[in-house]
């Protein structure tokens, strides 16, 4: 009888020990860091820490890059915040200097649509804003530049150098109607057209700030900065923007042409 009781007691103690061991194993914390990442990159990946790495350097169990460069902006242009690779754009966008944490709370998911709400966090914001959209394209199927992943509010690459500080200080930039000169455009605003300031408007970047330039933008001798009306006959290249080539003759406030809308500096 005593032997049976002893065996029963040992069995109970064994069950308690197993239960404690199972409970101990179950309660061990998972110390592995987990990351969200950009997922679709064929060759490179960016995770939510801002680390960009080769796909072969990704830990698929955690979603994190095992090695790589954090906040890598080497493929991006600091002036327009546009990058040649999507993953590089996300990585650079997450750099503290660009304040993605606060912008995610202020920028709508879909511009001009308040019901779209704001971004969940910095990583979601950078993933969304770095995607290619119509502002970085011309002809609807061609990119303005290889750097077409942008995390600026402008959302498109700049093809010329930034304007010098104060270049357009005191200048009202206005757009004309078809066949209207800049002299006429500025006179309607009780101002004068400044031929001196026309050179600062003579670029595709400045034109795209005021016109859609849906068909693209080219430097062509002749007129100053202008946009061809979208309803113009096809031979006139509707929806095209034109600027004078660098080093061209002085631009004129009196230039005009049918179906062209001029970009004018009024002072």
Task: Characterise the protein shown here.
- This protein is an alpha+beta fold and 267 residues long.
- It has two domains: 44-150, no CATH class; 172-266, no CATH class.
- The chain has seven helices and 15 strands.
- The strands form five sheets. Strands 11-15-13-14-12 form a five-stranded mixed beta sheet.
- Strand 3 and strand 4 form a beta hairpin.
- The longest helix is centred in the first third of the chain and has 26 residues, at 2-27.
- The protein is elongated.
- The model is unreliable at 21-29 (pLDDT under 50).
Can you give keywords for this protein?
267 residues; 15 strands; 2 domains; 3-stranded antiparallel β-sheet; alpha+beta
Describe the secondary structure blueprint for this structure.
Elements: H1 2-27, E1 44-46, E2 51-54, E3 58-59, E4 64-65, E5 69-70, E6 76-77, E7 82-83, H2 86-93, H3 100-103, H4 122-129, E8 137-138, E9 142-143, E10 149-150, E11 172-175, H5 182-187, H6 195-201, H7 204-210, E12 216-219, E13 226-228, E14 240-243, E15 260-266
Parallel strand pairs: 12-14
Antiparallel strand pairs: 1-2, 2-5, 3-4, 6-7, 7-10, 8-9, 11-15, 13-14, 13-15
Tell me the fraction of residues in β-strands, as a range: 15-25%
Between the first and last Cα atoms, what is the distance in angstroms?
A: 112 Å
Order of SSEs, N→C? HEEEEEEEHHHEEEEHHHEEEE
Average pLDDT across residues? 84
Q: How many strand elements? A: 15
Shape: elongated
Structural class: alpha+beta
Q: What count of structural domains?
A: 2
Give the spatial strand order of the biggest sheet.
11-15-13-14-12
Sequence stretches where pLDDT stays below 50 over 5 or more residues:
21-29
Please describe the biggest sheet, giving its number of strands, its sense, and whether it closes into a barrel.
Answer: 5 strands, mixed
Quickly count the helices: 7
Helix content: 10-25%
Taking Cα atoms only, what radius of gyration do you get, to the nearest Å?
A: 30 Å
Protein name: SREBP regulating gene protein
Family: Belongs to the SPRING family.
Signal peptide: 1-19
Pfam families: Glyco_transf_18 (PF15024), SPRING1 (PF10218)
């Amino acid at each position: 009888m005593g032997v049976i009781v002893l065996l029963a007691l040992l069995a109970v103690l064994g069950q308690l020990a197993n239960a404690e061991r199972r409970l101990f194993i179950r309660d061990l914390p998972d110390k592995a860091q987990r990351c969200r990442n950009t997922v679709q990159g064929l060759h490179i990946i960016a995770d939510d820490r801002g680390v960009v790495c080769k796909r072969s350097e990704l830990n698929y169990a955690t979603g994190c890059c095992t090695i790589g460069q954090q906040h890598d902006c080497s493929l991006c242009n600091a002036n327009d915040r546009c990058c040649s690779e999507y993953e590089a754009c996300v990585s650079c966008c997450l750099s503290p200097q660009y304040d993605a944490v606060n912008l995610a709370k202020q920028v709508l998911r879909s511009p001009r649509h308040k019901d779209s709400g704001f971004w969940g966090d910095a990583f979601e914001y950078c993933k969304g804003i770095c995607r290619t959209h119509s502002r970085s394209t011309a002809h609807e199927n061609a990119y303005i530049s290889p750097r077409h992943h942008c995390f600026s509010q402008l959302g498109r690459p700049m093809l010329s150098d930034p304007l010098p500080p104060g270049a357009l200080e005191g200048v009202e930039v206005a757009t004309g109607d078809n066949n209207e000169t800049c002299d006429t455009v500025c006179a309607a605003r009780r101002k004068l057209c400044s031929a001196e300031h026309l050179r600062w408007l003579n670029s595709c970047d400045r034109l795209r700030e005021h016109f859609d330039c849906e068909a693209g933008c080219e430097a062509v001798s002749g007129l100053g900065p202008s946009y061809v009306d979208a309803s113009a006959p096809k031979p006139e290249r509707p929806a095209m923007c034109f600027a004078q080539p660098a080093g061209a003759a002085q631009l004129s406030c009196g230039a005009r042409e049918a179906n062209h809308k001029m970009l004018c500096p009024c002072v």
